[in-house]
Design brief:
The complex is a heterodimer of chains A (314) and B (286).
Chain A lengths: L1 H28 L4 H6 L5 H10 L6 H13 L13 H36 L4 H15 L2 H15 L14 H35 L2 H8 L4 H23 L1 H14 L5 H11 L2 H29 L1 H4 L3
Chain B lengths: L1 H16 L2 H18 L1 H4 L31 H36 L2 H16 L2 H12 L3 H28 L2 H8 L4 H37 L11 H10 L6 H28 L8
Helix pairs in contact in B: 2-4, 2-11, 4-5, 4-7, 4-9, 4-11, 5-7, 6-7, 7-9, 9-10, 9-11, 10-11
Classes of the chains: A mainly alpha (314), B mainly alpha (286).
């Protein structure tokens, strides 16, 4: 287990480092001088020189990369071009809004989707199974940003049940919860069907295994067999799926944050892209990607803990 | 020999035609192709013809899907938007399939270090959530259709490459490849004549499943103003313009979303039916 842990950790670090290099080279691959791009064509030569010195643009590229990585490791991601606020602070302020959205979206999808998949597998070819199938297809076919727009149309513009924009008054938890409902609904909806399908498929496979029959033959209660024995194995592919699909979840979160004007990381990246505020784009993209890699790492380790066979395959 | 192959093909076709989801998907897919290709002949109006007095009108016999904030006919714009979607999907799928196939075979048949390096590259590319990668790229290059296409291709390649690699690895030590090798066949011949035909099926099925993803990415990026730029009609720009006037009329965001859902539904059903018929091992369980 320890060997697996170290290998997996090393691989994740390598990917994060590669991401930093790619992000960094993107900035240098485009034609033109980064300072002019950042400040616009009408910037004075003095302003450009000042910017170049501040961002270490007068150093060779590899040295700039080393400086950036060194600073990033100590938690310094540079400063906002316009307000000169530290990027790290800006990200930390907004991280909570994105995290709460991701967890709320994934959470309600898992709470609804996993039991739905279990029930559909336990009672195949019943109305419950049929409804699960319809829900799966219907929710997968609608792109998440369309769910956001249509939810906004129905619940905020049409019915006026829920607030349309923002994240709610700071300190007022009830208000913040109301503002979380629609984005979380939009982010999670596709996952309800996805998880239900996945759990149903792997449950059906596991339910046919001899050890499930043995457990039944020993007279264990059906619920104990289903949730204690079958689900424990059937959940494995689902955990991988959640880890792998986390990138899609982040994309959905970005759309939801922009459509509902929720001040999270996604909105921060979008606004910075529009304002051509590169240090913020770079820092926020790095943090979002690192978080994603962390989630994949956790899901892989979780699987290795639950299923010893995986440990030898890396 | 030839007769049994023909019989098998007929049986597979019958199997596909009895799958209602597959047939339904095929109809939707054909509809998508036809509406995009024949848009100039079907569209009742010029997609960019402005008619201010008729702006933001409801669906009616004159304007089947209503009009937008400039009085342009939404139905015509949807038809023309389908052309953008089709173009991106066709180029995106074919380029990433070919490049993915090549890289996958290189990873599978090449030396171990190259395999590991390519896997690391694939993982890195997949590590970027698509929208974030797109935002980072557009921040530097500015929005355009070419950027959307590049992003679609780069993010799709790893999934094709992984399938090709797995197939190449499992074929590498089979008896018939060994036999071919001992007869003196070169690597190029083995890859082209023996590996490619074996992995083409799964790759094409993945291609069908990939179309909705690509179309959604294009629409999503255009919705954010990072892809197709106005006044060009795209499902994403229609949704974006509709989002801006959502308090005045619901029809634009409704009309702009429906083709997206139908396309996704069509290709998903078609891809799954093809998979069930031709490659039952794929997608069982995981």
């Amino acid at each position: 287990m320890t060997a697996y842990l170290f290998k997996r950790l090393g691989l994740s670090m390598a990917v994060v480092l590669a991401v930093v290099v790619v992000l960094f080279s993107l900035l240098h691959m485009i034609p033109g001088d980064p300072a002019t791009i950042a400040l616009g064509p009408r910037a004075t030569p003095e302003a450009i020189a000042r910017y170049a010195a501040k961002m270490h643009l007068d150093q060779p590229v590899w040295k700039q990369l080393v400086i950036y990585v060194g600073n990033a490791v100590t938690g310094d991601l540079g400063v906002d071009v316009f307000s000169e606020r530290p990027v790290t602070t800006m990200i930390l302020e907004r991280l909570g809004f994105s995290m709460s959205l991701v967890f709320a979206g994934m959470g309600w999808a898992a709470v609804l989707g996993i039991p739905l998949g279990c029930l559909a597998a336990v009672k195949p070819n019943t109305w419950l199974d049929w409804i699960t199938g319809v829900i799966s297809v219907a929710t997968i076919a609608v792109p998440s940003f369309l769910v956001s727009i249509w939810a906004l149309l129905i619940f905020a513009v049409g019915l006026r049940w829920l607030p349309a924009i923002g994240a709610g008054e700071p300190g007022d938890l009830g208000d913040q919860f109301l503002h979380l409902i629609m984005p979380a609904f939009a982010v999670g909806l596709g996952w309800v069907g996805y998880l239900a399908r996945m759990v149903r498929a792997s449950m059906l496979e596991v339910m046919g295994e001899p050890y499930i029959r043995s457990a039944r033959a020993f007279g264990l209660k059906p619920n104990k067999v289903i949730f204690g024995y079958a689900l424990r194995v059937a959940i494995l592919p689902t955990i991988t799926l959640i880890g792998m699909g986390f990138g899609g979840l982040i994309s959905a979160t970005v759309f939801a944050e922009i459509i509902f004007a929720r001040p999270g990381i996604g909105k921060l990246i979008f606004d910075s892209v529009m304002a051509r505020n590169f240090p913020v784009v770079q820092g926020a993209v790095l943090v979002a990607t690192a978080l994603y890699i962390l989630v994949v790492l956790i899901s892989d380790i979780l699987i290795a803990m639950l299923d010893p066979r995986v440990r030898d395959s890396l | 020999m030839r007769e049994s192959a023909a019989r098998e093909r007929r049986e597979k076709l019958k199997l596909f035609l009895t799958n209602w989801q597959g047939v339904f998907g095929l109809i939707l897919v054909l509809l998508f192709f036809a509406s995009a290709i024949f848009a100039p002949w079907i569209a009742p109006y010029d997609p960019n013809a402005i008619d201010i007095p008729a702006r933001l009108s409801k669906p009616s016999a004159i304007h089947l899907a209503g009009t937008d904030q400039l009085g342009r006919d939404t139905f015509s714009r949807i038809l023309y938007g389908g052309r953008v979607a089709l173009k991106i999907a066709a180029i995106g799928v074919s380029v990433s399939l070919v490049v993915g196939l090549l890289l996958g075979m290189i990873a599978g048949f090449g030396p171990r270090w190259l395999d590991n390096l390519l896997l690391l590259v694939f993982d890195t590319v997949r590590a970027f959530p698509t929208v974030i990668l797109a935002l980072a790229t557009v921040a530097l290059t500015g929005p355009s259709l070419a950027v959307v296409l590049a992003i679609v291709i780069v993010t799709s390649i790893p999934s094709y490459a992984r399938i090709a690699r797995t197939a190449a690895l499992s074929l590498r030590n089979t008896d018939f490849i060994m036999a071919e090798r001992s007869l003196g066949a070169g690597l190029g011949r083995i890859l082209w004549h023996h590996v490619t035909p074996n992995v083409m099926g799964p790759l094409l099925i993945l291609g069908a499943m990939d179309v909705p993803v690509i179309v959604t990415v294009e629409a999503g990026l255009s919705f954010l103003g990072l892809g197709v730029l106005p006044p060009t009609a795209s499902w994403g720009t229609i949704l974006n313009e509709g989002y801006l006037v959502i308090r005045d009329t619901p029809w634009m965001v409704i009309a702009g979303g429906i083709p997206l859902i139908l396309t996704t539904l069509g290709f998903t059903f078609l891809g799954e039916a093809l998979r069930d018929v031709f490659d039952p091992r794929m997608g069982r369980g995981r």
